[in-house]
């Protein structure tokens, strides 16, 4: 993502062109593979969905200046369990609230908003005790960010860890910590707490 630059309202240093093109092609291919894997099986019991609230932390550093903002999103996930220990997921996050941008801890008067996030992931998981599951996520996410009157998008490797507790055979409580962007001295991270439903 373009990094912030002194004197500029938006300067997120996104991926270089070659990597950006590769990642743009990777996401739709991975998404198609995910949908194909789900539709190829006649067992609907592997399909699940999640919805949660995600406070985010955006940080960037350039030229001795530290930029930060704390917007928030609502995140939805559709996943399919390939086995007891592996799932594939598609993610969509939408803006819930913008936040002021701080420069070296001082409010700049400029607002930042994560308009949307789209991602695809593989999700290894393990049940540690009955009903409690620990998992990881690894994939790619594309994020659209608005700072002031400027908007830009970026694609990055995304990863995180989380836990899920089954309330019954269908409902679960979920929490995870994800890094959605980590490139060019810019990071976007967030904790999500939500509920899941297994179809």
TrEMBL record:
Gene3D superfamilies: 2.40.160.20. InterPro entries: Beta-barrel_OMP, OM_autotransptr_brl_dom, OMP/PagP_B-barrel. Pfam families: OMP_b-brl. The keyword Signal applies. Residues 1-44 form the signal peptide. Keywords: Signal. This is Porin family protein. It comes from Hydrogenophaga aromaticivorans. It comes from the Bacteria. It is found in: Cell outer membrane. Residues 30-199 form the Outer membrane protein beta-barrel domain. GO terms for cellular component: cell outer membrane.
């Amino acid at each position: 993502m373009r990094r912030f630059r002194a004197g500029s309202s938006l300067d997120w240093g996104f991926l270089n062109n070659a990597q950006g093109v590769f990642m743009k092609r990777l996401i739709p291919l991975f998404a198609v593979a995910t949908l194909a894997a789900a539709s190829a099986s006649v067992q609907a019991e592997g399909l699940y969905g999640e919805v949660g609230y995600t406070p985010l932390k955006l940080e960037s550093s350039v030229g001795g200046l530290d930029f930060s903002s704390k917007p928030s999103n609502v995140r939805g996930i559709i996943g399919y369990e390939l086995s007891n220990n592996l799932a594939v997921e598609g993610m969509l996050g939408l803006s819930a609230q913008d936040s002021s941008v701080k420069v070296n801890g001082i409010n700049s008067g400029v607002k930042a908003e994560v308009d949307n996030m789209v991602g695809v992931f593989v999700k290894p998981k393990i049940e540690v005790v009955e009903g409690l599951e620990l998992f990881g996520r690894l994939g790619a996410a594309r994020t659209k960010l608005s700072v002031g009157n400027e908007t830009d998008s970026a694609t990055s490797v995304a990863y995180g860890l989380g836990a899920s507790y089954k309330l019954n055979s269908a409902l679960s409580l979920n929490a995870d910590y994800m890094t959605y962007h980590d490139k060019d001295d810019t990071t976007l991270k967030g904790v999500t707490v939500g509920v899941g439903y297994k179809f």
